[in-house]
Amino acid sequence: MHRNLELYGAPLARFIVVGVVVALCCWGVYRLLRRFRVGDEAASGYALITPWLLGLLIFAAYPILFSLVLSFTRYSVLQPPEFVGLENYRRIFTADPNFRVAMKVTFAFAALSVPLGMVASLLTAMLLNTNVRLVGVWRTIYYMPSVLPAVSTALLWRWLLVPRGGLVNKLLGGLGLPEPGWFNDPQWVIPAFVLMSLQGAAGNNMVIFLAALKGVPAQLHEAAHIDGAGWWARFRHVTIPQISPVILYHLIMGIIGSMQVFTQPMFIRTPGRSGLFYSVHIYRTGWEYLQMGYACALAWVLLIVILILTCLVLRGSRSLVYYEAAK
Amino acid sequence: MLRVRALGISIGGVVFSIAFVAAVAVCLSGCRRQPAGPRVTIAVWGGAEEIDQFRSRVLASVRRQMPNVSIEVIYIPRDYHVKLATLMAAGQPPDLFYLSDEYVPQYAELGALLDLTRWIEGDDDPAVDLSDYYPSIVSNYRWEGGLYGLPWIAQPVVLFCNEQLFTEAGVELPDGQWRWAEFVEAGKRLTRDLDGDGLPDRWGFVINGWPPFEMFVWQNGGDTLSADGKHVRLLDPKCVGAAQFYADLIGEYQIAPPLDVVTEQGFSELFRAGKVAMFMGGAADELDSVPGLKVSVREVPAGADGSRATFVWNAGLCISRGTADKELAYRTWKLFLDAIQHWKIPAPRRSLAARLETIEPRKARAAEVIRTSMTYMRPFRVIARQRQWDTIMAEEFEEPLLRGAADARTLARQASTELQMLLR
Amino acid sequence: MIRSVTAKGVIYLLLAVGAVFFLVPFVWMLVTSLKGPEQAYQLTLGLKPSELRWQNYRDAWAALPFTRFLFNTLFITVTATVGQVFSATLVAYGFARFRFPGRRVLFVILLSTMMIPSVVTLVPTFLLWRWVGLIDTFDPLMLGSWFGGNAFFIFLARQFFMGIPVELEEAARLEGASAVRVYWHIMLPLAKPLMLAMVLIAFVAQWNDFLGPLVFLNDFDKYTMTLGLRFFEGSFMGEAPKWHWMMAMTTLMALPVLLIFFFAQRRFVEGVSLTGMKG
């Protein structure tokens, strides 16, 4: 009994306490700001984002800044870091062929999987938004793969895409189509990973799109329909704008996620370096070769790249995304 | 007005809950008893069954012999080194931990391991009697004059032969005199196309990067790395010749299936399913007790000129440099070492290897062969940057070689330059 | 509304074809979990009904203390999900509706925190928790959830909130309701579909998390189901990994989540109807 209290009671107590403390901080921030004559709106805004700010300062700032500092050191994890200046970055850009390969592979993967994934999940969500019979069952079926841990799906696809005798190629062969070498063929490695990602993308993203589609007011559709708009026109002028915030979300999350894909490439052996994804490269350098400083430098380069891409997307989206209450 | 009142109520409620919860938390933390007295932590890897056996055969025995010490085990299912390194980075390393010999130089160089030389020197406990250990494997636990651990297993590679397939093909089982030529010859006769579709259904042998091609290099009288560990010898004709022989098993002699088939049907699964006649596996592998198969264990073939060599995989137990009570850690280490050596087979000690039949009756038939193999077994010569070495070797040399992308000499040239850079 | 029969037919067809694609993982898992250890690796999907080994489920469960693991996993998952959903929506509301200096910059920072792979932040994060002495407890896996949890939930909720018309809130604010009351009484109910989606996704993420428990937990009794599962991957004495047990446990782990989804998705239908607002 004691043991159970210790195992569960204590963390639970701490959990509740922390929750309460965070709530108090929010309130405290609000009062504090008001005392300094900050307007109600700004004060409320800050108060509301206090949990995240606290989290940022406590849990994110330290590790992230630490990794930045580490990127200028040689750090073997088992020994204290030693400062080496820009050495790591120099090595990335001049002396590491794996860096270029990993960037290319990851970029190619992202360029394919993000748009395809978005289209696939949107289409799926639309299909599942209709009032077909047993829609609940259909939706659950489509959601199934995303429930599985990444390891299982990696195993599964490794098995499915076996060149000779794998289910996919048996199917293709049966239809008279060419049977690619998938994970054994350097040309087909990236498409194989993209294919694998589609299944997962459909799951979670579909759920979100579904929620968004449900949020489109029915009268807008009806009004457009009354005005004589056909299905496609309605889609383009009602649905898309209404769910555009969520589309933006998926685009950015897709970029961030696909550039960092890790578990599946770790699990699946590919010829040479055709499947060397960037985060695998980071993992190897950091944890296998114990060159954590260099790994941090690699990570920061990735961060900058993703950041630039994201800012570009955000900048471009301003004119395209329709926020109902654009401020 | 609305706000203040609402907040007013909630403040009271909040204060109350905090007080209550804090009281509870204090109460609970007071209840948590830190085990007083000496503690030793040990980190191990293993699958589900292994943990069970570890508990019953090793842990129980050690605990019995050290009743006043609290021994805590950290079972790490995967990503062993991530967890280990993280614990070390945080200054909370386990006192004892498993480490396979490939990692010892890396960790020793980084100062994570305790040098056991002076502890072992005066100690006449049989568990640390260095003369009882096979010298070839202890060498990897030495680094720059220190000794950083001892192995608890030494698995030489042996040849598992499916007797039935041999009989069906009319081939004699290996007689202990086989060299490469006889091996290939037998392999060819054991590779048969039973259903006439042009593709073999029974194979003589199977490789997929295992067994390590270095084993064949040694049998050929060469080595990939020079004795002083400073020069890559991959381009030596003996090396290249052996590597080419290895690749030819699939390509030229066709006694082993192409990699695609292995991916499709599994590696050891092919042997278990009775589709492959000869398999090179670790001595402890239970391939000779697969239900439905009659399997004999033989020595691996010798090189063309008769040199015998076989690869040995081993892992050991090390003590962390940062451990608080070194004396206690050392004593516990010895107990664990001995207990594990009486559990996992084959043990790296001659005295225990001599009693292989008693320790593990299931291996009684194979015991002689295993013992003989242990006399000429060799581990890799390990360097501090072993992980990078392994990656380059696998990606730039072995994989393309087995796929038939290029011949051994061309690949060796490329890989050599990269590997040499690791030795600077 | 689908008017024509052909349109409906096409939809059913597409659904069916897609469903096959999406069912494959589950079917494969189920089939593998019912095989014997020797056949688990083989490519044949075919299984004779007489050879179904339902006892794999029992054996796998008994091989390790999965009841304890289950409880641990539930404990962590439920608390973390609750914390994440509430704090993420709260923060997102702040970002979505309130103007305050530095809002854009902070938002970009929010996004940036997601762009660093966890492999490099692992060590400092571990050091942090060690500093408060909470290694080998459940806390590192639970406490972070009050701070907005994963930035991705905040981002998601913000996008969602920004798509909701302001009229309702403005009415409430004019009456003097505080931000928190508006949040609680108006935004959350409006965002029900989103909340459900978030609960689901947060639950699944926590339920399947492997690296967190691996790194922060030392005590075997505290292990979660994902850790337990991975023990089946080890090969011992040259035996193949216990794929059949691993698949059995993976299937079991997937079931509760699927059930939650099945019942939650009906709520999506009832979802948001903003018709009342525009009247």
Structural commentary:
The complex is a heterotrimer of chains A (327), B (424) and C (279). Chain A is an all-alpha fold. Chain A is built from 13 helices and two strands; from the N terminus they run H-H-E-E-H-H-H-H-H-H-H-H-H-H-H. Chain A has helices at residues 2-35, 40-70, 87-95, 97-127, 135-143, 150-160, 167-174, 189-214, 218-226, 231-259, 263-267, 278-288, 292-317; strands at residues 73-74, 82-83. In chain A, strands 1-2 form a two-stranded antiparallel sheet. Chain A is globular, with a radius of gyration of 24 Å. The termini of chain A are far apart. The model of chain A has no long low-confidence stretch (mean pLDDT 86). Chain B is of the alpha/beta class and 424 residues long. Chain B has two domains: 9-155 and 312-378, D-Maltodextrin-Binding Protein, domain 2; 157-311 and 405-420, D-Maltodextrin-Binding Protein, domain 2 (3-Layer(aba) Sandwich), CATH 3.40.190. Chain B has helices spanning 2-31, 48-65, 80-89, 104-109, 117-121, 135-138, 163-169, 180-190, 213-219, 237-248, 259-265, 267-272, 326-341, 350-354, 356-359, 367-375, 386-403, 408-422; strands spanning 39-45, 70-76, 96-100, 142-143, 146-147, 150-151, 155-162, 278-282, 295-298, 310-313, 315-319, 377-378. Chain B has a five-stranded mixed β-sheet. In chain B, strands 7, 8, 9, 10 and 12 form a five-stranded mixed β-sheet that branches. In chain B, helix 2 (48-65) crosses helix 13 (326-341), helix 9 packs across helix 10 and helix 17 (386-403) runs antiparallel to helix 18 (408-422). Chain B is globular, with a radius of gyration of 27 Å. Chain C has 279 residues and is mostly helical. The longest helix of chain C is centred in the N-terminal third of the chain and has 32 residues, at 66-97. Chain C has helices at 5-33, 55-63, 66-97, 103-112, 118-131, 139-142, 151-162, 167-174, 179-190, 192-207, 211-216, 225-230, 243-270. In chain C, helix 1 packs antiparallel against helix 13 (243-270), helix 3 packs across helix 7 and helix 8 (167-174) packs antiparallel against helix 9. Residues 271-279 of chain C have low confidence and may be disordered. At the A-C interface, helix 1, helix 2, helix 5, helix 6 and helix 8 of A face helix 1, helix 3, helix 4, helix 5 and helix 7 of C.
